Predict the structure.
Amino acid sequence: MTSFDSATQTELEAAAFRRLLQHLDEHKDVQNIDLMILADFCRNCLSKWLMAAAEERGLSLDYDAAREQVYGMPFEQWKAKYQTPATQEQLQAFEAKQAEKKSKAT
């Protein structure tokens, strides 16, 4: 693997994160529950990780501000425009995923 200096590595990771946010923004039809089922993370998780990264650096970033960065708009606005109710199939798949995680942990 190519090694980069720390600043370059950080810039590359930041660019990849921005691209991920752009990709999610371009695919608003992909619901958070779909992401949770397939990848075990969602837009809200990204928001929490962003908030935690700020906190690790002694910076203040509240959850609503972090979600606005990830969603590209206030969460309540995004939710009203793009979030759909979870289907029974999605809920069942999510519960199965959670049960699978729980069984692996024990």
Summary: The radius of gyration is 16 Å. Helices lie at 6-26, 32-39, 43-56, 63-71, 75-82, 88-105. The longest helix spans residues 6-26. The chain has one domain: 6-105.
